[in-house]
């Protein structure tokens, strides 16, 4: 019985300790772009000297003010789906890298999208019923966010 309890505790601890998989291409979330600036409808590259760690990953900012704003309420600014392409998560449940200049603020949340080789997934997201895709992306993310 004692061995069973030890094994149970080890397994349950590792399950709860799983971290969300963030898209940290170029060493930081959102390819190093300032996640606070997006809420001013701007895609601005962050500075390595103006960085902080949240949830085990690095976030970069373009100004000390944006860094402090993030620190006060990080969950407001963290991109949805770990910073992976919202359209790909919704359509196929796949983690796809993003173009940090292609984004949408919807209902106070940041969504990032793939945009390369003639495919702008933000345009597809907007054409194909974003509410339905967002709902599906929320479901899919629960299944893949720790993988």
Automatic annotation (TrEMBL):
<keyword id="KW-0732">Signal</keyword>
<dbReference type="Pfam" id="PF04945">
    <property type="entry name" value="YHS"/>
</dbReference>
<feature type="domain" description="YHS">
    <location>
        <begin position="38"/>
        <end position="81"/>
    </location>
</feature>
<dbReference type="InterPro" id="IPR007029">
    <property type="entry name" value="YHS_dom"/>
</dbReference>
<feature type="signal peptide">
    <location>
        <begin position="1"/>
        <end position="17"/>
    </location>
</feature>
<protein>
    <recommendedName>
        <fullName>YHS domain-containing protein</fullName>
    </recommendedName>
</protein>
